[in-house]
Amino acid sequence: MTAPPASQRTLPALANETADIVSDVRALVGAGTAIDESLLDAALRGWSANTRRAFRSDLTLWGRWCRKRRVAAAAATPDLVAAWIRVLAGIDTSDETQRAMATIERYLVHVGWAYRMAGLTDPTDAPLVKLEKKAARKALGVRQRQARAIRFKGDISDFDSPAAGVCLAHLLKACRRDELGLRDAALLRLAYDSGCRRSELVAIEVRHIERDAEGAGTLFIPSSKTDQAGEGAYAYLSPATMAAIVRWRDKAEIRKGPLFRRVETHFDGSVAAIGGRALHPNSITLIYRRLIRAAHAKKLLGEMSEAELERWVDLPPSEWPNFYFRVGHEGGMEWQGSTSRRRLSASCVKRRSCWRRAGRLRMRVVGSASPSRATIVGARNMAA
């Protein structure tokens, strides 16, 4: 039986986006260029929504570079690609913003795909380009800048010390006492327990959370940035987090659907209504900024100056803190306390899936002065 054309097999939800991407590729390499529909169809079905958006954005950047150099994109050479790499890496002087090596490599992958989809010679696959990438890695380094880790009590030397600076404890105190504050508190606690990215947080639904008989709970994470196949993963939620979620759900009368929703307010700041749709991932950053300002206004952040406050709130989303544990030497927190009181131990972490898969976690248990106390130290790469 003959398979239907690729254009007929394209998922309905991708139909408009397929046409847009075909238009983008043709705008880059020529309107009369034939596009390999089978290759395009397979790519669109295999790529995530974020990858498809990045593909289109990266083609726009490459097209702008070609126009700037007065070269038709269809006739681009490895020399043109190599010059682009040097500019993006900051090796050659330019008004272009310097990019991270991972970003440069993403640009090149997507540009290469566009040429292959159009049946043209890929200028990014030449030996010169490979050598320029190697030189750029040497100049920039390949270690990616990770999102900061936020600590439960801030930058303290002893767990019994009072909270200091920007930390979870202070952000919780900065939350309001109405529906908006209940949502923010539940969001903060769940994010801290699970280490979820912004996109994962807004995708959480009521059915993804299961409570146990002791008051704690389990969060099912259907998919994530590093789990495009949708195998799913689980995270442990503390009793305090579960209680915060219950308070938010009861007040907002949420029985099913998205857990974290928009809370609309009147001009005077009072709550007007609670939406039915999930928050947008960018809303997480806005919420965090608002809570930082609220904590500063309540004098919870100590002697933080206005300049330091603005430095915090003006950070780009990629550098905003994630709510998860990191090894103390890497800028995160060490959670030290009674393993029986916290109900956390090495076996508990594994048994209750407190963290993600073993391949994405480094955990060690360090004995302390008392046999009943331990330090649970976990680390995870959590860029949003």
Automatic annotation (TrEMBL):
- Gene3D superfamilies per the UniProt record, alphabetical: 1.10.150.130, Intergrase catalytic core
Q: Where is the Tyr recombinase domain?
A: 155-384
- The question of whether DNA-binding is a record keyword is answered with yes
SUPFAM superfamilies assigned: DNA breaking-rejoining enzymes, lambda integrase-like, N-terminal domain
The organism's place on the tree of life at top rank: Bacteria
Q: Do you know which InterPro entries this protein is assigned to?
A: DNA_brk_join_enz, Integrase-like_cat_sf, Integrase_catalytic, Integrase_recombinase_N
Q: Which GO terms describe its molecular function?
A: DNA binding
Keyword tags: DNA recombination, DNA-binding
- Tell me the GO BP annotations in alphabetical order: DNA integration; DNA recombination
Query: Would the keyword DNA-binding be found if you checked this record's keyword annotation?
Result: yes
Official protein name in the record = Integrase-like protein
Q: Which organism is it from?
A: Sphingobium indicum BiD32
